[in-house]
User: Fold these one by one.
Assistant:
Number 1:
Amino acid sequence: MNDKLAVEPSLYIVATPIGNLGDITIRAIEILKSVDCILTENVRHSSLLLDHYGIKTKTRRYNDQDEKNLADVIVNQIKNEKMTFAIISDAGTPLISDPGFKLIQKAATVNINIFSVPGPCALISALSVSGLATSKFAFEGFLPSQKTAREHRLKLLKSETRTTIFYEAPHRIIEFIKSISRILGSDRRIVIGREITKRFESIYRGKVSEIIAYLDDNPAIVRGEFVVVLSGAEERFEYSDLDSLLGVLLEELGLKQAVSLARKISGVNRNVVYERALKLSSH
Ligand code: SAM
C-alpha cells in the first residue's frame, strides 16, 4: 500500500462520486487537499464537491481535446517545478470515457510518478449488480451516435462472448437498444443501470425485447444516466477448433472414444463430429 501523501512531484488520478456525494474515499479527500493543483473537467461542477469537503486547493480546467499543449505544460511543471497535481472528472474515474488519457500518456513516457486513488466507476457498479457474468468483460464506452456507425460497431461485437458494457445518453438509449436488437438479436439478456447511487436508482433486467417494450411503455424513466450491460454471445465451437481438438484426441485415442469426448467438450452434434473425425483420420 502506498500511504504517503502528495509530497513528491507526481500526478494523482482521483475517482470522485458518480452521484452520491458520500462515495469518496478518505485518501481522495486528503490527496485533493494536499496537491498544488487539481485538474478538473469542469471547474464549476467540481466546486460543488470540493466545497462540500472543504477542499480549497486551486483548480485548473483540463480537457484532452481543447488545449493542445496543456498536457505538456503540466508535465513540465511536475518535472521542472516539482509541482504535484491531481486530476478529477465530473464523475467517477478520470480517463474512463473522461479526459486525462493524453496527460497520463505523456507523464508515463517521461517517468513521472502516477498514482491511482481508486473509487467509483459507473461501469463497475453496473456490472457488479447486473447478475450477468463478471469473470470476463469488455467495456465499449459510448458507441457512435450515428446509426450506421453504431450498428457497424455492434456487428463487430456479434461473436463477443464476454459480458459487454456500454455508456449511453438518455435521449439515445431506446434507439441504442433497438440497434442491439437488430444486430445482436432480441433474446440476449440485458441489464440497464439507471442513476446508480442516486435517489432514483433503478436496475432493469430482461431480454432485449422486454427492455425495449418496458422503456417504450414508460417514457418517464428514460431520463438520467444509463449504463447498459449486455450478456455475451454463446460460446460457439468453430470447425477449426473442433479439428484441432479432434487432432489431439485422435493421437491418443481410438475413433469412437475421440468422437465421444470431442462431442462432450464441444457440444457439437455427434454426426458432425464423427464425419470430421473420419476425414481427419483418413489423411
Ligand atoms: N468516468 C465516469 C466513470 O467512471 O464511470 C464515466 C463518465 S462518462 C462521461 C458518463 C457516463 O457514465 C454517463 O453517460 C452514463 O452512461 C455513465 N454514468 C455515470 N454516472 C452514472 C450513474 N450514476 N448511473 C448510471 N450511469 C452513469
Number 2:
Amino acid sequence: MKTSRIPGFYNMTVEDRRKTIAKLYALPEEQVDYLFSTEPLKTGTADKMIENVIGTFPLPLGLGLNFLINDKDYAVPMAIEEASVVASASYIAKIARSAGGFKTEATERIMIGQIQVVGCPDMHAAKQAILNEKAELLEVANAAYPSIAARGGGAEGLDVRILNESSESTFSQMLVVHLYVDTCDAMGANIINTMVEALAPTVEKLTGGKVYLRILSNYADRCLARATCSIPPHLLESEGFSGEEVRDGVIQAYQFAASDPYRAVTHNKGIMNGIDPIVIATGNDWRAVEAGAHAYAARNGHYGSMTTWSVDEKGNLRGELELPMSIGTVGGATRVHPMAKLALDILGNPSASELAQVMVAVGLAQNLGALKALVTDGIQKGHMALHSRSVAIAAGATGEMIDIVAEKLVQLKEVRVGKAEEILVGCKNDC
Ligand code: MEV
C-alpha cells in the first residue's frame, strides 16, 4: 500500500518532494512531466476551456499527508493560497491515524434536475398527469443521454411538487418536476441539463402549462458523503492543555457554531478550507460544492454547524461531517486540466464516491485543526510560525537560513519581508 506518512516531507525542497511523490506513487511518465512542468496547463488548452483567455492562474498545490480513511492511506492534493491549511490538515490526520483514522461512507450518487412549470389550468391534475407518465418520461430522459445508461446510471425516478399553491399571485404558483439521475462518476451537470431540456415539451403537453427553468439543482441531498472520527483525549493534549480540556473546548466551540450563524459561517469556512482545495485540485466545480454545503447546513431551518462534535461513552471526542458532494472524477476539467489528472493519480484514481468521502474526511480534520488551535493558543501562533517561513523565503533566505530567519521573526513579533531582509544582512555580516 502507498503510504501517506512521509516523515521529513515538510523540510524537503520542492524538487525533492516532487521526486519523492513520483517514486512513491509510481506516477506515469506523463504525470511526472506535469509535476515538473512550469506551465502544465498550456495557454492553448486554457483558451479552449473558457472565453477571452489572457493567461492561466496557478495556485500552490500541497499534499495533505497522514490521511488514513477506511484503513486506506491517502496523500491528498490541495490547491490553496492560504498558509497553515495543509499543515493543519496533515497534523490532525496524524493524530487521527493513531486512533484508527477516519471512517467514511456515502449514499448513492443521485443528482437532481428541476423543471419549473407555470400557468397550469389545474395544478393537481397536471401533477397527476406527470406521475401517470413517469415511465415514459424517464425513457425520454434516458434517450436524451444514452451513454449514462450504458455506464450503469441514468434517470431513475421523478417527483412533482406544487409551490405556493395558496398564493394569489400568478407569478408564484408553480409546479416543479424533480428528475432523479444516477450520474455514476460524473458530476452530472451536462447529463441532467440535457435530460431536463429534452423533457420540457412532453411536460408542457401533459400539464397544459409553460416550462421556464430546466436546470440541475446544486442542492445534492441525495448524493451525500459522511466522515466520522473518534479520538481519545490523550492524543489531543497540547502544551499547557490537557486532552480533556481540548476535547471539551472543541465541543463548546461546536455548540457556539451550532447556535449562532455569525460563528457558524466562520466555522464552516474552516471546514471548506479543507474541502475546496481538493475540489479545485481535482478540477471540480467548487461553487457547486460550496452552495450545496451551506444550504445543507441550513436544512433544519436555521444556518448552523456542518460538523457535530460530542463525547462518546469512552470519553473520546467524536466528530461527524455529512455534506452533499456534487463532484465527479470523469468529464469536465477533471480530465482536461493536467494537474487535475495528476491529482487524481496521486489519489489512486478514485471513483466519485470515494473522492467525495476523502473530501469530507479532510473537511472534518480541518475543522478539528481550527477548533483545537482556537480553544488553546489561538490560531495566530501556528499561523505566524508558518507564515514566517514564507516571509523568510521571500526575503531571499535559503537552506538552513529559512528556519533561523523565521524563528527570529516570530521572536521579534515582526513577521514582514523588510525585517527578514535586515536579519539576513545581519547574519551575513556576522559570518
Ligand atoms: C481561517 O481560514 C479559518 C478559521 O477561521 C476557521 C474557524 O474559525 O473555525 C480558523
